[in-house]
Specification:
CATH topology of the largest domain: Aspartate Aminotransferase, domain 2
Distance between the termini: 48 Å
Shape: globular
CATH architecture of the largest domain: 3-Layer(aba) Sandwich
CATH superfamily of the largest domain: Type I PLP-dependent aspartate aminotransferase-like (Major domain)
Number of helices: 15
Order of helices and strands: HEHHEHEHEHEHEHEEHHHHEEHEEHEH
């Protein structure tokens, strides 16, 4: 059976997530996934096991401690393989904001007075403010602005911004407002021709398919694990040849022991251990749909990514089409997903109503969503939108189903009566 003949078994997927059976959440269609996803039972079981059986300081020789350390190491190793990285190229920290703040402090080593740092106005603030702070040491901050008509970042605009003083480029892989998937591989190729370090923010990309960081050839890449079906942690990948040269941001005795040097205080033990459950969930998902077990972990992830992308496209495109045809609503970004050119993260606003009014109307119809600037306030500001009222955002992941889409479509139909 070819991949084209296989569809994501949505009933199997939803059976793995206790939230769909919980009395508090089971009657809702959940469309706030870009803010944080539900977790599968595998993750809950791993977290419970750590807290009940191995909640001790890890890496000692007694069994509870030894198992705790082994599970923490296993989680790190498995996630490295899932994104095609080496184990010593990833670290798990408290959040993407924290990880990038620490990284920016370390990368100061490479920045001289009047060097240039490029950021975008399309990113979440997590991948803007740490780099803008480098102006405090004399760096010049250059803004790569999206096109006001298409809302896209254009590679030609980036080319015109790069000079021989450009040292760092921070760019989102996928906008959490516009939904665009930026061609991070081409961006990296252009940057590396000019000896520029590339930091890719994958927070809004990874929930729709874990990346191959070597294929992208970024120097650093980060995403939030609580948006990829896990606990409130974040992953930061960095190329080994750069990590080993960064100044230590951790305890003095850890000098030279990268990547721990970029992780002050170390990871949360129990939540790190529970990340094994994310791997197990995706491995179970692969085994449920495919028979070939001789593939690498990363190749299995690639096949599951394809199933997820097709499923999400089928759910999102009717909503994108509907919103783009409604006279009173303005859709931000592309009105159709084709070959994963945008994420199923759908932001829009009304010409006659506040985003808060529309968001509340969705809530009355049991669609869990919200209005906000979603920490991409520079994006909204340049779109001429209120950063307090923000936009309405409907964000889909692979455990959403056709019934969820139908509920959104029927709620949109009722908006005229609001």
């Amino acid at each position: 059976m070819t991949l084209e003949n296989i569809k994501l078994d949505i009933d199997y997927v939803r059976s793995q997530f206790p939230a769909f059976r919980d009395p508090l959440s089971k009657d809702w269609s959940f469309f706030e996934n870009a803010g944080g996803s539900y977790v599968p039972k595998n993750v809950i079981d791993k977290l419970t096991y750590f807290m009940t059986s191995t909640k001790v300081q890890p890496y000692a020789e007694y069994p509870m401690s030894k198992i705790a350390g082994e599970n923490m190491d296993r989680a790190t190793e498995l996630f490295a393989q899932m994104i095609n990285a080496k184990k010593n190229e990833i670290l798990i920290g408290g959040s993407t904001s924290i990880n990038l703040y620490v990284l920016s402090n370390a990368l100061k080593k490479f920045i001289n007075h009047d060097d240039e740092v490029i950021v975008t106005n399309q990113d979440h603030e997590a991948n803007i403010s740490p780099w803008r702070r480098l102006s405090e040491i004399g760096a010049k901050i250059i803004e790569w602005k999206f096109d006001l008509n298409s809302h896209e970042l254009k590679l030609s605009d980036l080319e015109s911004l790069i000079t021989n003083k450009t040292k760092i480029l921070a760019v989102t892989h996928c906008s959490n407002i516009v939904g665009s998937v930026n061609n991070l591989k081409k961006i990296s190729e252009l940057a590396h021709k000019n000896n520029i370090i590339v930091i890719g923010d994958g927070v809004s990309y990874a929930p729709h398919g874990f990346p191959d960081v070597k294929e992208l050839d970024v120097d650093f890449y980060t995403f939030s694990l609580y948006k990829t079906y896990g606990p409130h942690l974040a992953l930061l990948y960095g190329k080994e040849e750069i990590l080993r040269d960064l100044p230590n941001q951790n305890h003095e005795f850890l000098n030279g022991k990268y990547p721990y040097t970029i992780n002050p205080g170390g990871p949360n033990h129990e939540e790190l251990s529970s990340l094994v459950g994310i791997y197990e969930y995706f491995n179970d998902l692969y085994n449920h749909h495919f028979k070939d077990n001789n593939l690498s972990i990363q190749n299995k992830i690639s096949k599951i990514n394809a199933l997820i992308a097709q499923h999400e496209e089928n759910l999102a495109n009717p909503i994108l089409s509907k919103i783009s045809c409604m006279d009173d609503l303005n859709l931000i970004g592309r009105n159709k997903i084709v070959n994963k050119n945008r994420a199923p993260t759908i932001s829009f606003f009304s010409k006659s109503k506040t985003s808060k009014e529309i968001s509340n109307f969705f809530l009355k119809n049991k669609v869990a969503t919200r209005n906000d600037n979603f920490y991409a306030w520079r994006c909204l500001k340049d779109l001429g939108l209120s950063t307090s009222d923000g936009v309405v955002r409907l964000s889909i992941v692979h455990y959403n189903n056709n019934q969820d889409t139908e509920l959104v479509l029927s709620t949109l139909d009722k908006l005229n009566n609001l």
